[in-house]
Design brief:
Alpha-Beta Plaits, 6 helices, alpha+beta
Length: 176
């Protein structure tokens, strides 16, 4: 039985948001236990991220799926957000952006259409992303740097051989 405590989401136009969302199939008993725990939200999210970095569950975001999703994330920039950085991990995504519209609208568009694209490319059907997501509004420049560096280094720290393909950031030198 899955019991989820839904997270409170804070939406503010022109605010920068650090958002994490994961594949539906990445959920298992241990992850569900973490989600439902009474840990402080930042500690809970850190433990969830550490677990997901090593878990093979729901790890669909590999190979061509990385570039498919990266292209889609970039395509939303004109209308929904100013994209700052993202890291596409095998079973979850970290993204940093400045909102142009309400956060629930951004996430509905981002997760809804990307689920259709990814399911088609993978020959899958049904729910692709977990319903909820973790968001943290950026408070100041120090927090921005911490979030950006976390996203930049996530795939490297997880030891992924294709880490360079999984990260995009506006503060990096463009690749030729």
């Amino acid at each position: 039985m899955k019991i989820f405590k839904h997270l409170h989401h804070h939406s503010q136009l022109n605010a920068s948001q650090f958002v994490t969302f994961r594949t539906q199939d990445s959920l298992d008993a241990y992850l569900n236990q973490l989600i439902c725990s009474d840990l402080e939200i930042s500690k809970k999210q850190w433990q969830i991220d550490q677990y997901l970095d090593k878990s093979p569950e729901g790890a669909y975001l590999n190979g061509d799926m990385i570039s498919l999703l990266a292209t889609y994330l970039k395509s939303l920039e004109a209308d929904f957000y100013d994209l700052i950085a993202f890291s596409i991990m095998p079973n979850h995504v970290h993204i940093l952006f400045t909102q142009k519209t309400e956060l629930p609208c951004v996430m509905q568009k981002l997760k809804g259409e990307s689920a259709i694209l990814l399911n088609q490319a993978l020959g899958k059907q049904g729910k692709f992303w977990q319903k909820d997501y973790y968001d943290k509004q950026i408070r100041d420049e120090r927090h921005y740097c911490i979030a950006y560096d976390y996203i930049k280094n996530n795939a490297l720290k997880a030891g992924l051989k294709d880490a360079d393909k999984r990260f995009y950031g506006i503060h990096e030198e463009p690749r030729l």
